[in-house]
Amino acid sequence: xxxxxxxxxxxxxxxxxxxxxxxxxxxxxxxxxxxxxxxxxxxxxxxxxxxxxxxxxxxxxxxxxxxxxxxxxxxxxxxxxxxxxxxxxxxxxxxxxxxxxxxxxxxxxxxxxxxxxxxxxxxxxxxxxxxxxxxxxxxxxxxxxxxxxxxxxxxxxxxxxxxxxxxxxxxxxxxxxxxxxxxxxxxxxxxxxxxxxxxxxxxxxxxxxxxxxxxxxxxxxxxxxxxxxxxxxxxxxxxxxxxxxxxxxxxxxxxxxxxxxxxxxxxxxxxxxxxxxxxxxxxxxxxxxxxxxxx
Length: 295
Ligand SMILES: [Zn+2]
Description:
This protein is about 50% helix and about 15% strand. The chain is an alpha/beta fold. The strands form two sheets. A five-stranded parallel beta sheet has the order 4-3-2-5-6, sandwiched between helices.
C-alpha cells in the first residue's frame, strides 16, 4: 500500500516536469512571435487597413483632369508605385505627362560588393524607361537629374540651389497644370526633401500650378491619425484605376532590381508586404496645398 502511494507521487512529478517543459517552450514561442512576427504583421496589416480606410471612407473621389502633369520622383519606381494608374489614364487620353527623376538610384544596392560603384544606375534607368513606355510615356518626356541617392537632405547650399534651378527650368518649359510630388511626411528622407525642393522650385519658376502629394512610405511607416492634421486628412482623394490596373501591375513588374533579391538568401529592396497595396485598383492623393507664385 505504502509503495504504490510512492509510485503515484513519482508519476505526478513526471507530469509536472512535462508541463513545466511545455510551458517553457510555449513561452519561448510566444516571445519569438512577439519579437519577430508581430511587428511585421502589424506593419503590413496596419498599412493595408490605413489604405483601405482612405479608399472607402476617408477620401473624396478623384477623376482624371485634362491638365498636363509633371510627376516628380526621388527614385526610379516611386512614379509607378504612387501614380502609375494616373499616368496611364492620362496618357490614354493623350494628356501630356512628363516624369522627372531626382536621384540616380545608386543607393539601393550600394551595400553589395558588385554594385558599390553605382553599377545599379543604368539598370534602374532602363527599368524606368521600359516601365513608363508600358504606361504610354515616351523617353523624350523622361528626365533624369542624376543627383546623389539618399543624400537629398544633406545637400550643400550650392547643390541644393542647382537642383531647384534645374527643376524650375523644367517647370517653366513644360508649364504643367499639375505637379505630383511624394507626400511631405513620406517617412523617407529623399522623399520629404523632394517635396521641399519642388515647392521651392515652383516659387522660383513663378508659375501657378496645383501641387498634389502621392503617398509611398507614409502608409507603411506611420499612423495617419497620429501624424497628420485633420485638414491634411480631409485633403485625401481616391482615384479608381480598375481599367488600367493590369497595365500598372505590368509596369511595376519591370522593376525587378527592386522587388527581387539580388543574391540567394538576401531580402529584396521592396518587400512583398510593402508592395501589396500597390496591386490594388486604387491610388490615393493628398491635395492640401497649391503653390502660388507668391505663396
Ligand atoms: Zn523612393
